[in-house]
Amino acid sequence: MSSTTNSSVPLPLRERSSDIESSASTDPMEMSVCEDDLMVVETTPREDVLQSRNDDIYDVPEYAADIYQYLREAEVCHKPRANYMSKQSDITSSMRWILVDWLVEVAEEYSLHTETLYLAVSYIDRFLSHMSVKRDKLQLVGTTAMFIAAKYEEIYPPDVGQFAYITDNTYKVGQILRMEHLILKVLSFDMAVPTAHLFVNKFSRMCKNSEETLNLALFLAEVTMLDCDPFLRFLPSMIAASAVALANHTQGRVAWPSHMVESTGYALEDLRECYVNLYRAFSRVHEPQQHAIRDKYKSSKWHGVSQLSPRQNFPW
């Protein structure tokens, strides 16, 4: 991991809060038979066959239904409490919003996978569902959650010292390690959780979406991490399904094809409440306020999907 300069590092949260083959034979007759066979065998697989094999790698059709059923059960087990913020005496939803926004910048600075970000936010919400946290320790919880998620998901995770540095040394390495111990204990070391990011990719492959439509769905799903109300009420798979449907509709495609109902267990009507809330969040994304996710998805890497606007009608 290359070192970062002070000018390129995201501001610490405390500063931002004010504004986050077969063997050959020697027999001539046998050799002749082999040559005849080769005349009718395609030596180079067709491109559509290769693509089919690539799809099978990810979708493993023999086990896909069982895997999906397991993920749907697991997301229920790991769902944070939707109303946990009402039990917190010293932090608010806006503070959490700033924290997640800052973590998006941290993930971009260290080139972390998007799944790492989703896992970190999941750990934060699950932890805060059980523990009351003072406002001066909220950034410590977020930083440590990202540290744990990086160790779980990344091949080369940043060192703990880099996470201390990213907070402008507001928290020392020892504090992060002690908080890591506490978070792992509270979460019972249960770090493998299905996220909306996983489901968006799965549903988009099932819909055979273009890369731009996939990026729009990823953007929409990421936006839901900012608002605990209302999106903590919905399971990751429902958020993902709504994001894919809204992305499809925005791109002029069928929002939720009929084969998706049978494959996912969600009908478009089941997604109505989540879809409408996601539509509202999409409509407000251009409002002039700090928004790291919007800025992230403006780049050509993501086809600039955050600059799009939703259509004025609904698909039902």
TrEMBL record:
Residues 101-185, 198-280 form the Cyclin-like domain. The keyword Cell division applies. Residues 1-29 are annotated as: Disordered. GO terms for biological process: cell division; mitotic cell cycle phase transition. Keywords: Cell cycle, Cell division, Cyclin. Coiled coil: none annotated. One of its GO terms (molecular function) is cyclin-dependent protein serine/threonine kinase regulator activity. PROSITE patterns: CYCLINS. Belongs to the cyclin family. It comes from Homarus americanus. This is Cyclin-A-like. Residues 194-311 form the Cyclin C-terminal domain. It holds the Pfam family Cyclin_N. It comes from the Eukaryota.
